[in-house]
Amino acid sequence: MDLSYIFNNGDVVKMVWITPDMARFWLETYKYKYQRNIAQNNVNTLTLEMLAGRFNEQTTISFAMIDGKYVLLDGQHRLTAIVKSNKSTYSIVQLAKRKQNKKLL
């Protein structure tokens, strides 16, 4: 069963099984220059939740296309925790379309 949803504006939302290797690749490949710094306390909390089996899989990891390239807008702490915990998990992944380079807050 494909759990993808495509919206009129071209955005795609899908439930994805994210492995530590995939999380590491996304963090390295889709860096966004305006992304805030990693807050290690947040990563540690999320890592402990993942290891205890209490991680909320209903959170969204968001990417946007800016100037023809996808960048990670939201989810760097969750992806870093997936790498640190070495645990795979489901998460909602959103691919949003953008046409021009704008600083997104």
Coarse structural class: alpha+beta
* Biggest sheet descriptor: 5 strands, mixed
How many domain modules? 1
Report the count of strand segments. Answer: 5
The shape is globular
Assess the beta-strand content as a share of residues.
25-35%
Q: Give the termini separation.
A: 34 Å
Extract low-pLDDT stretches. Answer: none
Whole-number mean pLDDT: 85
Number of helices: 3
Gyration radius over CA: 14 Å
Strand order of the largest sheet: 1-2-5-3-4
Helical content class: 25-40%
Helix/strand order, N-terminal first: EEHHEEHE
What does this structure look like?
This protein is of the alpha+beta class and 105 residues long. It has one domain (4-88). Helix content is 30%, strand content 30%. It is built from 3 helices and 5 strands; from the N terminus they run ββααββαβ. Strands 1-2-5-3-4 form a 5-stranded mixed beta sheet. A hairpin with a 5-residue loop joins strand 1 (4-6) and strand 2 (12-18). Helix 1 crosses helix 3 and helix 2 (40-51) crosses helix 3. The chain is globular, with a radius of gyration of 14 Å. The model has no long low-confidence stretch (mean pLDDT 85).
What keyword list fits this structure?
five-stranded mixed beta sheet, alpha+beta, 105 residues, 3 helices, 5 strands
How would you concisely characterize the structure shown here?
This protein is α+β, with helices and mostly antiparallel strands and 105 residues long. Helix content is 30%, strand content 30%. The chain has helices at 20-29, 40-51, 76-85, and strands spanning 4-6, 12-18, 60-66, 69-74, 89-97.
